[in-house]
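Example record for the data management plan.
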Amino acid sequence: MWFFRALLRTRAGLIGFAGLVFYALLVVVGPLLVPFDSEVKTDQVNAPPGSRLQLVTRAADAEQLGTLAALADKVVGYVRSSGGETLVEPLEDTFAGTESYRRGGGLEDGLTELADGDIDALVLFSEAFKTDPIGPGSDFPGLAIANTRLSAPHLLGTDTQGRDIFSHIVNGGRTLIVTALLAGLISTTIAVLLGSLAALAGGVVDRMLSALANFILVLPRFPLLIVLAALFTLDNIVLLATLIGLLVWPALMRAVRAQVLSLRERDYVEAARALDLGGRHIVFREILPNMMSFVVINLILAVTFAMYDQIGLIFLGMAPINDYSWGVMLYFGRTRGALFSPDSAAMVLAPVVAIALFQVSMVMFARALEEVFDPRLRTA
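Corresponding structural encoding:
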């Protein structure tokens, strides 16, 4: 409880903690509430936020035939690959008949048949009216939109295959965040173990481990990751997390070594030595608990670095793209030209914003932990 009371005194930390809780719910609960949209809908490609399916009827019938339920014993048409089939086909037995039309020229055929009375209603995507307007002053003045909210809206628009971007954001964070957390845990564990061993053992062991850490530190990490990703098949998140974790630990290892060198000279550690309590007791009961806050803060920072490395590899196509994540969204945004099309901006901006807000939450929470555990950093 003391931790939460201290956290409440830090506004930035409270915001960061709330952000992390939100992302935890997004990763765990979100996919249960918002299913992943995998259906390719060529009539909904690069649609703007708020677009949705709508119902068109003859103007005289607009008030009576405003819902699919009201169309029982009527003939209903839809455009193929527009998403309309997902609404019409489950109710097909209740209709007198259904007609499907191909996108493009087939849309005009559908509107013509609706105006002529061959069908009673037509399910269309809202963007279709930009190329084929209806109502007064158009080629189809006798038609009207009977229901502008026939389906749920695409809150963030659609991607280059007509799939809902919001569902991808909700379902795309789990793999990315879990991999980053795993990589952060691996790198932090290695750093704590080797840093503590180097400080407590001293001598040759200290020199060898410090030399190894310095050698890895001077290597360009991300270019090396690219080379290793090309050599190994990164077909699961554990392998990817391990590869990233093995290259992130040296900086923290040096910091842990310095912390342990300082702590081992404290009076309570000297007393434990004098009582011959053993190395395990000294490390796990005297030293490690006193630098746990430092380790936790650096674990959070290691997760942020791991996420950036992972996204970079995915963006370049060097990591698996079979699990649809925010990084994979950026990869497809690059390969399918979304980076150069204003109509596809949401496909790229949505994952960027999601990643940025997660990182900001992590950094703000880490900063708050520093203030909670170190009284010298607390503000008045």
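Summary line stored alongside the record: Strands lie at 53-58, 75-79, 97-101, 121-125, 143-147.
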